[in-house]
Write a structure and sequence with these properties.
By secondary structure, this protein is of the alpha+beta class. The protein has 1 helix and 6 strands; from the N terminus they run ββββαββ. A hairpin with a 2-residue loop joins strand 5 and strand 6. The longest helix is centred in the middle third of the chain and has 33 residues. The radius of gyration is 34 Å and the shape is rod-shaped. The N and C termini lie far apart (87 Å).
């Protein structure tokens, strides 16, 4: 890594330069903790601003909600299916006012 020496008070805490992702020159300096600035093309990025982290958290939240809905729905379906199973070998069918027992 190339050491950058400057008398500019804004960049006094700069220790080394890195390659800029925008212009490709080795003029990227760390102005503050996780805050980078290119001396050539003025590219500026603060890595503390994590917009990607918010998107990932949103997607994970949606997936968790979908899984929870699936579990609740399948549990309701299983309990509903069990309610139609008769305890004995007799099934009662109601048609209008008549009730018929089937064995």
């Amino acid at each position: 890594m190339h050491v950058y020496q400057t008398e500019d008070p804004r960049l006094m805490n700069v220790k080394e330069t890195l390659e800029c992702p925008k212009c490709g020159k080795r003029c990227l300096v760390e102005k503050a903790s996780n805050h980078y600035h290119c001396l050539w093309c003025h590219f500026d990025r603060n890595l503390n601003d994590t917009e990607d982290g918010n998107a990932i958290a949103f997607v994970i939240g949606i997936l968790l909600i979908m899984v929870l809905m699936f579990v609740v729905t399948s549990a309701n379906n299983r309990s509903r299916d069990r309610s139609f199973i008769p305890d004995s070998g007799t099934v009662e069918v109601a048609i209008g006012n008549r009730v018929a027992s089937l064995r």
